[in-house]
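Please go through this protein, sequence plus structure tokens, and consider how the sequence yields the tokens. Keep your notes short.
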Amino acid sequence: MSEFVICINNEGNPASLIVGKVYRRLPDPEAESHNMLRVIDEDKSEPDGYLYPASMFAPVELPEEVKRALMASGC
């Protein structure tokens, strides 16, 4: 899966996730085996990210320049 995902559903998490926003996905094979993704959400206080159902996101491929900019911004 892509290093970045876009939120397509924030039901139950409107303060933590914004529909249409790109989030950084952190590797977590155990979570993914349970159809969950670990992402850095709006809170950003947890460097290890938070778990959300994978169905709330869609993978997105971004140009390298965009990836670097997002990483630099703390996404």
About this structure: Residues 40 and 47 are 7 Å apart (CA to CA). The chain has one domain: 4-64.
